[in-house]
Structure formats: structure tokens, C-alpha cells
Amino acid sequence: MVRTGTEAEFKRQAQEVLEQHQVVGSLYFFQRRLKRGRGESFDAPLFPGYLFLQVEKLTAEGFALLRGVKNFCRLLPSNSEPQVIRGPALEELRLLMRHGEFLGVSKVVFLPGKRIRAISGPMVGLEGNVYKVNKKKRQITVISSLSPDGKKFDLLYEDAELLEESSVS
User: Fold this and answer.
1) I want to staple 10 with a disulfide (CB 3.0 to 4.6 A). Which of 2, 5, 102, 167 is the partner?
2) Which DSSP string do the residues of the chain spell out, in sequence order?
3) Within 10 Å of residue 10's Cβ, how many Cβ atoms?
4) Are 134 and 140 in contact (CB under 8 A)?
């Protein structure tokens, strides 16, 4: 982790230091293109404060070099035991790496009857079926799976992800 807002500068400085000491590795800082209400777009970190380090093995010397770069905070989960990414998380990371560090705007089509999951905000983790779509507000109304009476709640497009095919029951 690095201080949020310093990721790009940290990456530049860390790569210089690693190259100077012939440490073979790559740093990745993923950003995404977002749009504001009136269509103007801007870049924002996909994982604020996080850079991903790809090395065969992180040596004590390599760690000391990184720790010496301004705005370094720590390795996750701890400096003494950095986490090796495996399994589904590694597959997701490889997908991101294939598309490059700058990700465009993803297009998702929300249609009534489609199944979604809330991925951010106060409803995170809840699943349900799309009841209606308000394209102007970029908002979907969802019927909760938890409520037998069909409790509805609203989510913004960016707070939801589409799940596998399913229809409203």
C-alpha cells in the first residue's frame, strides 16, 4: 500500500530504484475511466492506495528498496508476510494485466428480470432481480431476494454487477 493519491508517482520512483539495483519485477497501478453526470470523463484508481508487484521472489533487499521510496506504507497483509495472490484473485489480476493499466468505461446492460448483486454502498452483497431501469438517472430498482413481499431498493449502475442469467420468479 502507498498513500492514496501518490500511486503514479510512487510507481515511477519505485521502478527507477528497482532498475538501478537490477531487481527484476513489474509494478501495476490500475486506473479506470469514469464519467460524471454531464458526460465528462476522468481517470480514477481502480484500487486506491494499491500497487501490485510482480516478482519471482521478494528478497529482503528488494523490500528494503521499496520501503525507501517516498509514500510507501506497507505490504499486505503485513511487511513480514507479503501475500502471494492465487486462485480466482490471480485470474482476475491477469485479466486486468491483459487489458493494461488504463481501463475504459465498461458497458453493462441492465434489463428488467436480470439478476444483480450490489457491489458497493450500504446494500453491498445483496442480490436481487432488476424490476425497472431509469437510464436518465443511471439507476436500477431491484426486488430483493431476501424479502418474500418483494421489497424494492434503488441502486446506481456503478453500485451493481450483473450475475448469471435468471428471470424474476
Assistant:
1) 2
2) -B-TT-HHHHHHHHHHHHHHTT---EEE--EEEEE-TTS-EEEEESSTT--EEE-S---HHHHHHHHTSTTB---SEETTEEPPP-HHHHHHHHHHHHH-SEE--------TT-EEEE-SSTTTT-EEEEEEEETTTTEEEEEESS-TT--EEEEEGGGEEE-SS----
3) 23
4) yes
Burial of 49 (0-12, 13-18, 19+ CB in 10 A): middle
CA 168 from chain center: how many Å? 29
Q: pTM of the entire structure?
A: 0.64
R_g over Cα of the chain:
20
pLDDT on residue 169 = 45
- The segments of the chain whose pLDDT lies below 50 read 166-169
Residue with cell 479506470: 32
Please give the torsion angle defined by the CA atoms of residues 18, 6, 95 and 157, in that order, rounded to the nearest 10 degrees: 180
Q: Is 1 exposed, middle or buried (0-12, 13-18, 19+ CB in 10 A)?
A: middle
Q: Please give the pLDDT value at position 167.
A: 41
* CA 37 vs CA 6, 42, 104: distances in Å: 26, 12, 17
Q: Are 79 and 63 in contact (CB under 8 A)?
A: yes
